[in-house]
Design a protein that fits this description.
Layout (H helix, E strand, L loop, with lengths): L1 H4 L5 H9 L6 H5 L18 H17 L6 H19 L33 H4 L2 H23 L5 H24 L1
Length: 182
């Protein structure tokens, strides 16, 4: 976030950056009665680029009103991009029906040509199975190594910078491995 915002971001911006990429899965949590293949079902409208733009603009409007110290346009683009990242990564999973990137205008579901991410079970009990634990391991390698590296990164402290760099390298290796073996 420092490259995008020029300084250490405040806690509100960090919290929004953690929360917004998870928002698209609200469809599965708060409306489980909607059939999966429905336009408002899982990986439908809430995973679309239009939804990401709405969330980005809405969150940016609240942030500007709350005087977070950044322009509306910069925040809207940033918030929309991190919200849209959820659908992008879901389109890289090896299961489900795909992602409705262009909903509500076109409800066709898409996958990306690279699908290295194992699809996650949709329940806590499912995560405790051997398949669920495999998914957790892959998600740790593909995503959490980068998050931990970002949290540790501090170029003023060499040991932290070295650990962060090693985690970034491990994450990059995990992605190369995933893209080559799936």
């Amino acid at each position: 976030m420092r490259p995008a915002f020029g300084s250490a971001p405040d806690r509100r911006l960090l919290f929004a950056s953690i929360l917004l990429p998870v928002i698209p899965d609200a469809d599965a949590l708060f409306a489980p009665w909607i059939p999966y293949a429905h336009p408002f079902g899982h990986r439908g409208f809430t995973h679309s680029l239009f939804f990401a733009a709405l969330v980005g603009a809405g969150t940016a409007a609240l942030a500007v009103r709350g005087k977070w110290g950044h322009s509306f346009l910069k925040l809207a683009i940033f918030f929309a991009a991190i919200t849209a990242s959820h659908g992008l990564f879901d389109a890289m999973t090896n299961g489900g029906l795909g992602v409705a990137f262009f909903a509500p205008f076109d409800n066709t579901r898409y996958f990306l040509p690279w699908r290295p991410i194992p699809v996650s079970p949709m329940s806590a009990a499912g995560l405790m199975t051997s398949r669920g634990l495999r998914v957790i391991r892959w998600e740790f390698a593909l995503f959490w190594l980068f998050a931990i590296a970002a949290a540790l990164w501090d170029r003023r402290r060499a040991p932290r910078a070295v650990i962060a760099a090693l985690l970034l390298i491990a994450g990059a290796i995990a992605w190369v491995r995933a893209l080559n073996f799936y």
